[in-house]
């Protein structure tokens, strides 16, 4: 594997560059050293498809074993793309040992600089507890970039997946996933979705998947509760984590740092959802609750129905569902009942205005094909 470094990076790693020409550009990368949050960061860009791999918070001792770290970073990032582990291992085997060279020409340096300008957009998503920034790598690789040949724009992430499929000569996706039934808890309505979700999905992404599945517009705050097997006591009935099944939460995942300013003395561990994946809690715990819009208080009870060991996609899908989700800001279940009453009566003087308002607020009939199109977009764009 050829790593073509900027002078800045070569000086830090103290390696003498060799003259080497990699025939297969899929095994060739350019690399630069930048600083983010006052931490040394290495950005790697694949010469074939402009795929990005990010290493963050490198210390002096890490540069002495950079070969190992680069190979592990590429491996972990491709596995996080849900690429079959056998294909990833074969790619690294055929890549061979790492050799370091100088940057090739201004064209490749320009592509490298573009990636180095993209990565800082997502520095708030960088994790402090690991060098390997697989999530930011995937996001940066979804950023559409210009390509001189033909003047078209490409998504490096999609291009890398195409190249690996050609390399492997077979379908490339294989990962662990779960089938979940998500039920919107309402007294008078039966509204639910059945989803299959890769376990490496972050809770931030999962929030977006749920938004797409129920047609919400992400106007409001949200949080997750993870439930164990212990039952709640009666004093929990007015708690935000209360659920009819009666299970007590073991952890509360929140979406903003400001959520920690509001203290609840309930003994439930509270964590920021940033960077946390479903696999950290599922399938160990089989029950969750997703609360969206603390005003209307839409509670979604989530149950793990089965674990899939060899899921053949790198994104979630909706496989079944029923019922139209309420529009945004309708005023909870009572407001939704009133809304339905108005739009079912064409003689109601508020019929036309309410119908238009509902459409503006995202209200529409459940359509599984449209839901899956919107879920796929979450993964393709890493919408956050």
What secondary-structure arrangement, pairings included, does this model have?
Blueprint lengths: L1 E4 L1 H7 L14 E9 L2 E8 L5 E7 L1 H4 L2 H15 L4 H11 L3 E4 L3 H13 L15 H8 L3 E2 L6 E2 L1 H13 L6 E10 L6 E8 L4 H12 L7 E10 L15 E8 L14 E4 L14 E6 L5 E14 L5 E6 L9 H12 L7 H10 L7 H14 L3
Parallel strand pairs: 1-2, 1-5, 11-12
Antiparallel strand pairs: 2-3, 3-4, 6-7, 8-9, 8-14, 9-15, 10-11, 10-13, 13-14
Helix pairs in contact: 3-4, 3-6, 8-11
Provide a concise account of the structure shown.
By secondary structure, the chain is α+β, with helices and mostly antiparallel strands. Helices cover 31% and strands 27% of the residues. Helix 3 packs across helix 6 and helix 8 packs antiparallel against helix 11.
Provide key terms for this protein:
alpha+beta; Plasmid_pRiA4b_Orf3-like; about 30% helix; 2 domains; about 375 residues; Nucleotidyltransferase, domain 5; single chain; five-stranded mixed sheet; Structural Genomics Hypothetical 15.5 Kd Protein In mrcA-pckA Intergenic Region, Chain A; MM3350-like_sf; DUF6933; TnpR protein
Structural write-up:
By secondary structure, the protein is of the alpha+beta class. It folds into 2 domains: 2-168, Nucleotidyltransferase, domain 5, CATH 3.30.420; 175-325 and 366-381, MM3350-like (Structural Genomics Hypothetical 15.5 Kd Protein In mrcA-pckA Intergenic Region, Chain A, Roll), CATH 3.10.290.30. Helices cover 31% and strands 27% of the residues. It has 11 helices and 15 strands. It has helices spanning 7-13, 60-63, 66-80, 85-95, 106-118, 134-141, 156-168, 203-214, 332-343, 351-360, 368-381; strands at 2-5, 28-36, 39-46, 52-58, 99-102, 145-146, 153-154, 175-184, 191-198, 222-231, 247-254, 269-272, 287-292, 298-311, 317-322. The strands form 3 sheets. Strands 12-11-10-13-14-8-9-15 form an 8-stranded mixed beta sheet. A 5-stranded mixed beta sheet has the order 4-3-2-1-5. The protein has a two-stranded antiparallel ribbon with strand order 6-7. A hairpin with a 2-residue loop joins strand 2 and strand 3 (39-46). The longest helix is centred in the N-terminal third of the chain and has 15 residues, at 66-80. It is elongated. The mean pLDDT is 93. Residues 2-158 form the DUF6933 domain. It comes from Thermoanaerobacter kivui (Acetogenium kivui).
